[in-house]
Specification:
By secondary structure, the chain is of the alpha/beta class. It contains 14 helices and 17 strands. Strands 4-10-9-8-7-5-6 form a 7-stranded mixed beta sheet, sandwiched between helices. A hairpin with an 8-residue loop joins β13 and β14. Bound molecules: ligand C6P. The site of ligand C6P has 17 residues, from α4.
């Protein structure tokens, strides 16, 4: 069941920024793959927390600090429930997906991989899921293997199987590509990866906000998402890792909070999750993530997915009818992210002109330069939708795109 028009209007009233004007027109925010807007419940939680409840965590014997610790622990439990992790200890607070993947590269790959071992990624990954692995390869002599995509932007499982071998130690793929919107067949990829004896990392930056994630059912070894892409604050994200892997990994950063005992001769480390959370955490941001997850749960993933599918179908049809426009990425399993180019027009010019109609879209390589290279283009314009977007906003975008074509072609 999808969201009806009055439900979408009610949702929009929860997001104060959506009622503002932009360049004299109602704001049409279509850059949700970059970051999402915040509901009033998140904004007010941050406000109240800073006004009335803020204190450090873990260290205080005083009530204010103990409450702050309790609030963060409650959000950890909420994240556990949200991902259906077995234990709250499997939830590590990080800054976002970028830090989550760097943590795995530093704590797992650097410790356990050796020269000749292989790390497998796809051809359309975000730089955050390329560069940390590349660094490991440079340092350890491991080899980066890349699963190609076809002209629609889909991975072929046959190609994937050919790459897997007993040398494969880590497979790291996005749940959903931010550059093209492709939904990778992660369930099958995880199963095949485990058969090869590898650990599987899922970059959930574009996944967690748009479909239910059950890490036990998926059986992935690691999964990460960023708070700011799921209607929560910036500066906080979640890395899920299986307990047995977290136990044997090295810490990522060293300092306060992550220790058990420190002497000048030797330091022993705390158990996960604190072992991976050196320093004062992003206390208020963690607290603000709680109502963001509640908000998504309240709407429900069934309705979110159905409504976003409607937006995708309608926007795909209308965008592809605009003269000179070509959609890049036509996977059969796709999220509501549409990358496109217009012949002889630079994507930045599209973005600038569309902005004059109040519509915000992203232009550029979307931190996925190899994906752009695969399609022989330097950049795209990208419209990405979520549950608060209106079908009318698609029409405003289309009107603006016609105008771009008339003015610049
Ligand atoms: N993509 C986009 O506009 P951070 O910045 O750590 O929260 O997330 C990084 C990241 C990792 N993987 C994927 C699939 C992503 O989409 C992103 C962030 C933004 O597409 C910014 S480039």
């Amino acid at each position: 069941m999808s969201l009806n028009a009055s439900e979408v209007q009610a949702i929009r009233r929860d997001f104060p920024i959506l009622s503002r004007m932009m360049n004299g027109r109602p704001l049409g925010y279509l850059d949700n793959a970059a970051t999402t807007q915040k509901p009033i419940s998140v904004i007010e939680r941050l406000n109240t927390f800073y006004r009335e409840q803020y204190a450090t965590v873990h260290r205080g014997v005083y009530t204010l600090s103990q409450n702050s610790t309790w609030e963060c622990d409650e959000v950890r439990k909420k994240c556990q429930k949200f991902l259906n992790a077995r234990q709250a200890e499997e939830i590590i607070f990080v800054r976002g997906v970028t830090e989550g993947i760097n943590l795995i590269a530093a704590g797992y790959a650097r410790k356990f991989l050796k020269a000749g071992d292989e790390i497998v990624i796809s051809e359309i990954e975000h730089h955050a899921n390329i560069v940390p692995w590349q660094r490991v390869c440079e340092e350890k002599g491991t080899v980066l293997k890349v699963i190609p995509v076809n002209d629609r932007g889909e991975i072929s499982l046959e190609e994937y199987k050919k790459i897997l071998s007993s040398r494969t130690k880590i497979i790291s793929v996005a749940h959903i590509s931010n550059a093209l919107g492709t939904i990778h067949p992660i369930r099958e990829m995880i199963r095949l990866g485990h058969n090869a004896g590898a650990v599987v990392v899922i970059d959930g930056a574009q996944g967690a906000a748009h479909q239910r994630t059950d890490v036990q059912e998926l059986d992935c070894d690691f999964y990460c998402f960023s708070g700011h892409k799921i209607y929560g604050p910036t500066g906080v994200g979640v890395l899920y890792g299986k307990r047995e892997l977290l136990e044997k990994m090295d810490p990522y950063q060293f300092g306060g909070e992550m220790i058990e005992r420190v002497t000048f001769e030797k330091t022993t480390f705390a158990k996960p999750p604190l072992k991976f959370e050196a320093g004062t955490p992003a206390i208020a941001q963690i607290v603000g993530l709680g109502p963001a997850l509640d908000y998504v749960e309240k709407i429900g993933f069934e309705k979110i997915a159905a409504y976003e599918k409607e937006l995708l179908t309608e926007a795909t049809k209308k965008i592809s009818q605009v003269k000179g426009v070509r959609i890049i990425g036509q996977a059969s399993e796709k999220a509501a992210i549409i990358s496109f180019v217009m012949e002889d027009v630079h994507p930045h010019d599209i973005g600038t002109i569309v902005d004059q109609s109040g519509v915000a879209i992203r232009t550029g390589h979307h931190c996925a330069q190899p994906a752009m290279r695969r399609f022989g283009i330097p950049a795209t314009a990208r419209a990405s939708f979520t549950f608060y977007n209106l079908k009318e906003e698609i029409d405003v975008l289309i009107g603006a795109l016609h105008h771009v074509y008339e003015v610049l072609k």
